[in-house]
Write a structure and sequence with these properties.
This protein is an alpha/beta fold. 29% of the residues lie in helices and 27% in strands. The protein has nine helices and 16 strands. α6 crosses α7 and α8 packs parallel to α9.
């Protein structure tokens, strides 16, 4: 009987994998629920309250990553597969063990590598994550790799929790994002109207939206003009609809037409636009109905990018309800994601058929 139990344990461990998962702050429970719906039962432990957790799945890492990336969860922003766990009480021992393990990963020799470090409160590493990254890179000097922040071929991930150091080495596509924790950063520009622009920049990267290929855009609820300014920079002609005032820097732009009205009170030509965007701080259902009422002005094959405010304690049900509204209006969902810059909302990327 003891031999049988040992054999069963070995089989279970063979088909068990751990993944460090990250969501926007406060939305980790919904990311956990997405994984539960995808895999059934799972074990999960929170590492940073409401944001980062480690999950144990009853399948191989390869299978787990494949299923997650195919499904593209809405609330799971970032992950990395755990290849090694180290007791974290002694930081010097933990660092030594992590480096020793990484030095044996010969397949990353001669490649572009990003070293991504994060830590939880109460961990044995009391200095900054950046200081630990520098230590890791210095001690990996016997390996010939090119360290980079953007466009790596491999990502070394290290999450320092209170009692455990979690180590991973993976391809960027396996992590859902090549940014540390999925926290993509943009440089704020002089004269930038608002941080709302970062949402479109991130959507452009996340969904690979070719904004520069469009010609005529409709921006619903445009004021003060963060999204309009982004589209103008991409060379589009923009019609901005909002009863509120647009930023003064946009008022004389030759490619911008401002309509100071409520979106419900405007009329356009059929198929006038090839892009429609909306980032309104409004009831999500009312926003969806208002946008769908204007979809006649979006040509077939045109693109729509909208944010959905999660003004409810049941955001998953709300998201599916909004998606149903758009799908019933001849919109095909290409992507639905809570981006890093979304905070308490998600972004929908859709194409009209």
């Amino acid at each position: 009987m003891d031999e049988q139990n040992a054999s069963n344990k070995q089989v279970n461990e063979q088909y068990s994998s751990k993944i460090i998962c990250t969501a926007n702050h406060g939305f980790a429970p919904y990311a956990q629920e997405e994984l539960r719906r995808l895999f059934g039962s799972l074990k999960s432990t929170m590492l940073i309250p409401g944001e980062v957790f480690v999950v144990t799945l009853g399948t191989t890492l390869e299978n787990a990553i494949e299923r997650i990336t195919e499904k593209s969860p809405i609330f799971l922003r970032h992950l990395f597969p755990v290849l090694m766990e180290i007791p974290g009480g002694d930081k010097d021992f933990a660092l030594q063990q992590a480096v020793s393990y990484l030095l044996k990963r010969e397949y990353i020799e001669g490649t572009r590598v990003s070293v991504q470090i994060r830590k939880a409160e109460g961990s044995s590493w009391t200095d900054s994550p950046g200081a630990l990254r520098d230590q890791v890179q210095e001690q990996l000097s016997p390996m010939e790799v090119e360290y980079t922040v953007t466009d790596p071929e491999w990502i070394i991930s290290l999450f320092v929790a209170k009692d455990t150091w979690y180590v991973g080495v993976s391809r960027p596509e396996s992590n859902l994002s090549d940014w540390n924790g999925g926290a993509i950063r943009f440089q704020r520009e002089e004269g930038q109207i608002s941080r709302a622009k970062f949402k479109l920049l991130e959507a452009e990267k996340q969904f690979e939206i070719p904004f520069s290929s469009f010609r005529h855009a409709l921006d619903i609820g445009a004021a003060p003009g963060g999204w309009s300014s982004f589209l103008l920079e991409r060379g589009l002609q923009v019609t901005a609809v909002d009863p509120a005032k647009m930023h003064e820097s946009l008022l004389d732009h030759p490619n911008l037409k401002i309509v100071n009205k409520n979106a419900a009170d405007v009329k356009f030509k059929e198929s006038q636009f090839d892009l429609l965007v909306c980032d309104m701080s409004w009831s999500p259902k009312l926003m969806a109905r208002m946008v769908t009422d204007l979809l006649y002005s979006l040509r077939s094959g045109g693109t729509a990018v909208v944010t959905v405010k999660l003004l409810t304690k049941k955001p998953m049900a709300l998201v599916h309800e909004i998606i149903d509204i758009f799908e019933d209006s001849r919109m095909q969902i290409q992507g639905a994601k809570q981006l890093f810059h979304n905070r308490d909302e998600i972004t929908l990327y859709m194409i009209k058929y």
